[in-house]
Amino acid sequence: MTVTVSMHFVNELFGGLSKSDSAKAGYLTRAGISPFLLTAPHGRVTVEQFATLYRLLVNEHDDETPGFFARPLRGGTLKLLCLSVLEAPTLKVALHRYTLFFRILLDDFGYVYSVQNGLARVALVEYQPPAGSRILVHELMLKLFHGIASWMIARKIPPVMMECAYPQPAHSADYLYFYPGKVTFNQPQTAMYFDAALLEQPIRQTKQHLGAFLRRAPADWFYVSLEERLISHRVREHLGRHLADSGSVNDVAQALHMSVRTLARRLANEGTHFQAVKDEFRRDIAIQALIRSERSLPTIADELGFQDMACFSRAFKAWTGNSPAAYRRATAALPSPS
């Protein structure tokens, strides 16, 4: 898993919790995240770091949606939710049980779903404003549904469209990897649309598979890979294998059996372009190399195709607001995550 995520997801995770800056720094340190990233202009962390922090807050507050709602969801809620839907014969029945589960459990939040014109629509309903950061609550609770539904049928569910009941946030470029498909903002409800035919898919997971899924939460439902669907993901996949020797736009277009012009047009339809995808990929690989390895900065720069360290440092600072050396120093001072 090479995708990194914006510090928005980390900062806003404390939105419903009364935490001082020093307390936040303590949690970040335990999760292997440098506290200096709290003020980094464009700081990013790995999905695993975010998941570790999430689990720390869940365990310390006995709330599986830490501070999101007026009523905490005590430890074991996610397990009970999954058990309640695993016995369903199809995704359609499981979705009915899923929405009913939250209707029983929460007074301030829920899900509704409908089917029209061949599309299933799952929407979030606010009966009162969430206690936590509203945008993050919407993002994570929709990803919770998407992740669990994809896991249940053992098949990645490609969103056809997503509507967001909030203005376009600064970190919306991340949605290309979390909500592939068309995304619109300032909508009446936050909702996801997908092919209604998937509702007839049988539930393929069993209780025996549940333990592993829960141990990996929230990473497995926060990030659901859909590489085979979007061209931008296929570009990243190619770069992951051939960045050093075949990372130009011409090389990638040839590998994907299309012209450079066609590649550019299809990436534009996804709201991006080749250099942006390549830069995002190199940014994510660089961050993970700085966090997880002891390879020298010149070695990392060379592996990512930069001519020299100066070019790498300039690019990394443009991506994250900090130099690669500063990123490494801040991370090196951290103890191992607890």
Automatic annotation (TrEMBL):
UniProt keyword annotation of Signal present: no
Keyword check for Cell inner membrane: no
Pfam families registered for this protein in UniProt: Arabinose_bd, HTH_18
Domain HTH araC/xylS-type: 233-330
GO CC field: cytosol
Matching PROSITE patterns: HTH_ARAC_FAMILY_2 (PS01124)
Name of the featured protein: AraC family transcriptional regulator
Organism for this UniProt entry: Candidatus Halomonas stercoripullorum
Lineage: Bacteria, Pseudomonadati, Pseudomonadota, Gammaproteobacteria, Oceanospirillales
